[in-house]
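Fold this complex.
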Amino acid sequence: MTEQTWQYRTPRHRLVLWVSWLCFVALCVFCWQVMTQDTIWYFVTDAPRQAADLGSRMIPPRWSYLEKLWLPLWDTLNIATLGTLLGVLFAIPVAFLAASNTTPSRLFVRPIALFIIVASRSINSLIWALLLVSIIGPGLLAGIIAIGLRSIGFVAKLLYEAIEETDTIQIEAITATGASRAQILNYAIVPQILPAFCGISVFRWDINIRESTILGLVGAGGIGVQLQASLNTLAWPQVTMIFIVILATVVISEWVSAKVRHAII
Amino acid sequence: MLSVSNVSKTYAAGDKALDDVSFTIPAGQVVGLIGPSGAGKSTLIRCVNRLVEPTSGTITLGDTPITGLSVSDLRSVRRRIGMIFQEYALVERLTVMENVLSGRLGYVSFWRSLLRRFPAVDVQKAYALLDRVGLMEHASKRADALSGGQRQRVGIARALEQDPELLLVDEPTASLDPKTSRQIMRLLIEICNERQLPAIINIHDVVLARQFTERLIGLQAGRIVFDGAPSELDETVLTRIYGEEDWTTLDKETEAA
Amino acid sequence: MASPSNTAGDSGTASYPTRWTRPPVFIQRAWLRWGLSLLALIWFVLAIGTLDVNWVRVAEGLERGWRFIKGFLTPDFVTRWPDISKGLVESLTMTLTSTVAGVLLSVPVGIGAARNVAPKAVYYVCRSIIAVSRSLQEIIIAILFVTMFGFGPFAGFLTLSFATIGFLAKLLAEDIEDIDEKQMEAIKATGASWLQLINYGVQPQVMPRLIGLSLYRLDINFRESAVIGIVGAGGIGATLNTAIDRYEFDSAGAILLIIIAIVMLAEYSSGYVRRWVQ
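Structure:
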């Protein structure tokens, strides 16, 4: 009998693992150097002083500015909510076209639907807003459409996954009664995905509130417009006030969204 | 009357599930389909309403050839065939009533079914069936609030709501306890007798099959190896269907039941 | 059976009700249902009413919109290639370094924020780090860091690292809190030190998910790196911003297509790596 020592992995496997790690570390170091070649290190070492300076300017917040923020806040909430509605409206058909069990054609329609989803998901709503402001001009409408475009991919992706996970036996049972395709959708698939759909929409609404607070930085309306104006005039106490309002809105919307999702599921 | 002749089914992966299966079922006959798991029982039942496309062979219900129908004609023949499933296959998030009414989907327009505005006769019939299976007061409950036996009764009501000419029953008792299994089988047989309804009951429990059906078809590796009365089902036949085993205890069990 | 009165089949159905209405799906109380619907309607009318759209400007924009779609379909990679490649290199290096730094930092923070392995004081400190990092959006952090550290990818690197900590440490902490207590007890029973406990009792259970989440965060960081350039934190976002400002929609289309392609590639390969890890 040969003597065996216990080893976690074979020597060959270990060698491959070590070389991969080495390459990975080398890659990281290389990236670091490329990234920082234009960095002015004086600014970095100076940062603590800058931070202290910034802090002293930001505090205390200008509380009286609050009354000028109510209207932008209302706009922000509207951008998020109308944008979510718009996105959901388009996401539903896209999801059904993308799900492999409901798509009319796996070869032609499904790849197109999947591309719409990936394109919408890859591009942040701020970039959509940047584009739309340049196309249709600054304002709430650009913000709403930007939020809508970004939401399509998110909602459609989660929804089509939910559609693909539906119980096939229930669908088979409704098919066996002689139901048409539309009736199968209505009786067998929709009841199964409805809770997931509501949860996804509310979840996205919550994210959209967060994202719509900053769309104004590129001119797409809402409280971000005030933020941009205050930043441009270096009115730091106002900036602090806006941050506080944004933070409060985000926390409240997160709470509402969690409550609603809990109630549905 | 249902006639199945020379039906074969080969799945895309190359597995041969059915091999040249032929039989006919006259009006009012309840047939038990037995055989080991993987013998093709479930495939055979699904070939009849073409939830599974048969590779070759013909199936006729009355005068209608089921094989070779277009999609829209298939709908109108499917509504004539009621199907009852192993895991009940109710749409769990719909109410009991919606599940029963879904048996009429092949008859009503999409808009009526979308708005849940079924014709008065359909609703009356649904109530009558729920009463028949003893679930009258559960009509507005959600299906997932019911117990296993109750759900299977809803499944039966849904199939009967179709006014079927044939019942396909796929392992109706596999998810139920022995007592409920017997109650469900008795209910099925009673209903078939009331309505002179032919049925194919796919069942793995030989004792139940012998007790409740008037004819048995034994399937082994996609082929029919037995077709006859339950009394003819002796040890040699059981060995032919299921393989070598000591079958004497099973006989005693049947006598006891 | 329950009701033998109706054994004659359909003949005795006349006495049954002819109508059935479905009970409401979500809200059972009628006044609440109607009240909420009314409120939603009032909000919708008000929201549309205060929308204030400059339709003339929108109509003018339609032609530009068409040009954007054309630019997206016939992208121009060449004209602005020096800018695009510079932005892309910044974005990619920023993404990788910030993810690695973020993961390395989020491991101690995550362990510290897990109630079942960390002391109370450490727990509260780590939890508040996570709370701050999660509640501030990347873009706001970027604004602050650009002010402190100056323009360029270094501020972006810090922003993304900070955001990664909040994201990963929270999920890691939740994972550790969910792990199998029995395995941990078994290790404890052998007389292991705290570090050995983490190494043998915790690490094997959370490692595969940590790797998966890190890859997912890599993907998110790349997408975010395209955004924070808008406020001066380096990366492809700055290039994109310039292209759109100059109405060079064909260059903008090219940049967007590159972003989409990289995100697709990342998603595809992360699925591959995740299978390889498990």
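Chain C has ten helices and no strands.
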